[in-house]
Amino acid sequence: MNKRQDKINSILVRSTNWIGDAVMTTPALRAIRESFPDARVTILANGLVAPLFAVHDAVDDVIVYDRKGAHAGFGGKIRLARELSSRKFDLAILLQNAIDAALIAWLARIPRRMGYRTDGRGLLLTHGVSVSEDIRRLHHVEYYLNMLGRFGVTTGDKSLNLCTASGEDLALAELLAGHGVGKGDFLLGINPGASYGAAKRWYPERFAAVADRLAQRWGARVVVTGGPGEADIAADIAAAMTSPCLVMAGKTSVRELMALIKRCDFFVTNDSGPMHIAAAFGVPLVAVFGPTDHTTTSPWCDTAAIIRRDTDCAPCLLRECPTDHRCMTAVTVEDVVETAEELRKTLEYRTQAQSERSR
């Protein structure tokens, strides 16, 4: 795309539909912002993902795609397309792969429509990229950047990026203080959920055992995070623990969850959206991987360690395990505790070495 010939004043970015995937698009958003510094960038996202970008350096505006309400059915798509058309976007960048994203951009008469030629939508795109097997094997961060790069939309900084407002951080600090967690307390986050499906979830009793051991060794306070669907799992973890535990699963909005994870000093998690949020904030983390492909969705940061066991059926990418869940049962409490200890020591050594070099 020749940006000198094709003046772009307003860009619509169709976000992905899952929190983790959306976090992994943030380097792509930086590339868009850097390539079109004078353009207004608007995100179109579902109600789950939209709050991620309510405060973000690369985003000027957010439109919620309400597929179960105002934008339900084909009539809802027409209604949304009319709204988008009224905003006179010059370019639509479709990070979501579905034909629905391209159809809405086409109905909205956005003149330039950029994305992968997936889901049979190639004819609806003006700037399309075919997906080879090599592209499918890319880490999701590289996958989104690869498509943009074909049209000269690039960045030299591929790190994840999320933002919270100072007021959100202050409110979170006050909330924790109300539960006896002070500013200087070491906060260990435990994230036992994974909204994609039960196959991605390690076991509550093992999370409880890890939390107890690390809390005792590190003098940490423990907080269990998660959405409403993980409240029962979080309660089971708290009941199995001997150390004090603050259960916040199901009690936070997406924005509050972001501030809470940002406050954590260490995070133990399944492969999940909160895992990617922690990676974006540079929170040291240990992630347990089972049925998912770590080569495409591992935490995109240098403060993480993953634990996975080679089995004959993983990665299967299934939501529910049809057999004995061996990819997860093979991961022990000792595996996670030892990995966490090693990672913390490595990061402390790195920080010390950097401090000495800067003197």
Structure notes:
It catalyses: an L-alpha-D-Hep-(1->5)-[alpha-Kdo-(2->4)]-alpha-Kdo-(2->6)-lipid A + ADP-L-glycero-beta-D-manno-heptose = an L-alpha-D-Hep-(1->3)-L-alpha-D-Hep-(1->5)-[alpha-Kdo-(2->4)]-alpha-Kdo-(2->6)-lipid A + ADP + H(+). It is an enzyme of class 2 (transferase). Keywords: Glycosyltransferase, Transferase. Its EC number is 2.4.99.24. This is lipopolysaccharide heptosyltransferase II. The chain is of the alpha/beta class and 359 residues long. It folds into 2 domains: 10-149, Rossmann fold; 167-357, 3-Layer(aba) Sandwich (Rossmann fold), CATH 3.40.50. The chain has 14 helices and 12 strands. The protein has helices at residues 19-23, 26-35, 73-86, 99-107, 133-136, 140-149, 166-178, 204-218, 231-240, 254-263, 273-280, 294-297, 326-329, 333-357; strands at 10-14, 40-46, 61-65, 91-94, 112-116, 127-129, 187-191, 221-224, 245-247, 266-270, 285-288, 304-307. The strands form 2 sheets. It has a 6-stranded parallel β-sheet with strand order 3-2-1-4-5-6, with helices on one face. The protein has a 6-stranded parallel β-sheet with strand order 9-8-7-10-11-12, with helices on both faces. α8 (204-218) crosses α9 (231-240). The N and C termini lie far apart (46 Å). 42% of the residues are buried. The model has no long low-confidence stretch (mean pLDDT 93).
